[in-house]
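Q: Sequence in, structure out?
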Amino acid sequence: MDEPKGRRRAPGMTPEQRREMIVAAALPLVAENGAAVTTAQVARAAGIGEGTIFRVFAGKDELLDACMAEAMRPDHAVREIASISLDQPLAARLREAAEAVRAGLERLGAVAGALQASGRPRSRGSEPRRPLASREASMAAIGAAIAELLEPERDSLRLSCEQTASLYLGLLFTRTAVRGPAEITAADLVEVFLGGALTISEGRA
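A: Exactly. Output:
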């Protein structure tokens, strides 16, 4: 009779996979507690021993930097925009894209705001950060995803899909940065973007 085989262990994570898993668990804690979050809290959220964190991160500062870098990544918004059905009317597609961008900006704002409010300096470590380059890369990735949404209407656009997407993305970021007396909804923004600021009854000069 053959010897019973032992249970086969699941393949272990690579260091990069473990880093990603830890950062994913840490992000909501950092957004809530800022730099006051402890590695013990992160370990509990990730379901690992605290020592595991220090096998892939030099310390808490490096983990916080990784969380900030993850919050700045456009991947989440790009995936959401890429999943929008092209079978919908253009206005509906652009409204969904606006909400995806808003969610990403809120996520970034929560993490950055919590870290700053908790007194963490903007720059740590020996290597300088390049937030401008990261922002430009994020804008380019999101802009490309929005341009894909515009493809079915390419022949009807005044400008190219890429130029139109760039204009729309600029409006989305302006909507977030400028606080007026009343909130500008995604529907408001799309209506003005596609139809102009004037109503049809008023006409144009």
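The mean pLDDT is 85.
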